[in-house]
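Q: My hope is that you can spare some time for a protein that puzzles me. Underneath my words sits a plain record pairing an amino acid chain with its backbone structure tokens. Those tokens are not coordinates but codes from a learned vocabulary of shapes. Thank you; the sequence and its tokens follow:
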Amino acid sequence: MNSDRNAVVLLSGGLDSTTTLAIAKEARFKIHALTFSYGQRHAVEVEAAGRIARAFEVASHVVIPIDLRVFGGSALTSDLAVPKDRSVTDMSDQIPITYVPARNTIFLSFALAFAEVRDAPDIFIGVNALDYSGYPDCRPEFIATFERLANVATKAAIEGRHRYTIHTPLISLTKRETIQRGLALGVDYSLTVTCYDPSPSGEACGRCDACLLRLRGFREVGMSDPAKYQSAQE
């Protein structure tokens, strides 16, 4: 029972981070959600994160502005085209242009600072090493390395007040398993936004890697995705 134990949960507003939030909530952590407005073209996910944080009645929700468009180097933070209609094989063949340089390193660094201030030894992030687009900062090796860093880089750890743990409850789950876990916890996936290239009104494209993986997951569960799409999805 962790009802008095603080945890920081990285909340993008997407399917994975929302499921991760639900898992942390089930474990009875006092949740401090952290969202980044980093110049992403799918900025509607920040609005989704707000809806989700309210629905889960988190203890606090902080939105941090970071302009990663200054660096570019990704289709999510520049005018480069988002890949569409790729096969799962193509997605896993190489690191795609939707990779944002060092994004999870940046996000976890902020989360660690937030966690130290909030007296929260537990940090949750919804990375996945199976149904994903080949991002290097979603791998177990990266998470384990950052956790070691957290425990030599903070005053709380050096003074022995905390041993930081980076929780990755989805890291070995398929998208189908993630959705099933979320549904069992009562997650309303209509609140979430996953698309890399949504319309101005927030409708998902249905063709980017994120949409295709999400849609496949819902098909495997045997239900329709409740998200709004620009055209009807089978």
Notes: The chain has one domain: 6-221.
